[in-house]
From TrEMBL:
Superkingdom, taxonomy of origin: Bacteria
Domain DinB-like: 15-174
InterPro entries: DinB-like, DinB/YfiT-like
Protein name: DinB-like domain-containing protein
Taxonomic source organism: Hymenobacter crusticola
Coiled-coil boundaries: none
Length: 190
């Protein structure tokens, strides 16, 4: 896929994520935001806090890469390394396989408030700016260190897609948790 189409598609995905959080999750009460379907599953706020923790790392790393990587001379095709393809495939929202997160990215048991929602939306705004700025960048340049093993690097385009797919995956998880919370609150009323 050419870089322009690639970036436009990622921007549209980020806008959908923003809209989903603003319309589906931001209006939830504290019970629904903190409801955990099981002790091992995350609440809506934990899903978003997990994404915030990744954004605290990847947004600055992507910003640095976008600033430092030479611009592409022409619109080129986005290429994938084995690591990039594997990382993105793992995070595809349709991939039902569960993966264990690294300890410092696991929000389970954290004291969380509605501020998690505002932080998530602020990160999305930053990501949209990065996606716009990336139009002037060689997206195939390996310049973004992988969070859990910084000796490995992803291409700028791979890292951008990984971040967006990861967010889609966990926002969908949060939306499923919201549905379970609504059912649980209705059961309490009856």
């Amino acid at each position: 896929m050419d870089t322009t189409t690639f970036l436009v598609q990622l921007q549209a995905a980020v806008r959908r994520l923003q809209a989903a959080v603003e319309t589906e999750l931001a209006s939830l009460d504290d019970f629904a935001l903190n409801f955990k379907p099981t002790s091992e599953q995350w609440s809506v706020l934990e899903c978003l806090e997990h994404l915030n923790r990744y954004s605290r790392y990847y947004n600055p790393a992507l910003g640095k890469a976008v600033q430092q990587v030479a611009s592409a001379t022409q619109s080129t095709l986005v290429r994938y390394s084995w690591l990039g393809r594997k990382s993105i495939t793992m995070m595809q929202p349709g991939n039902g396989k569960q993966y264990k997160t690294v300890k410092h990215m696991n929000p389970a048991g954290s004291a969380l408030s509605r501020e998690v929602l505002a932080e998530f939306l602020a990160h999305q705004t930053q990501l949209l700016v990065l996606l716009t700025d990336a139009q002037k960048t060689d997206l195939n340049k390996k310049a973004v260190p992988v969070e859990f093993f910084r000796l490995l690097k992803l291409g700028v385009g791979e890292a951008l897609e990984f971040v967006v797919r990861h967010q889609e995956r966990h926002v969908q998880q949060a939306l499923r948790t919201k549905q379970q919370a609504v059912r649980a609150s209705l059961a309490l009323v009856v």
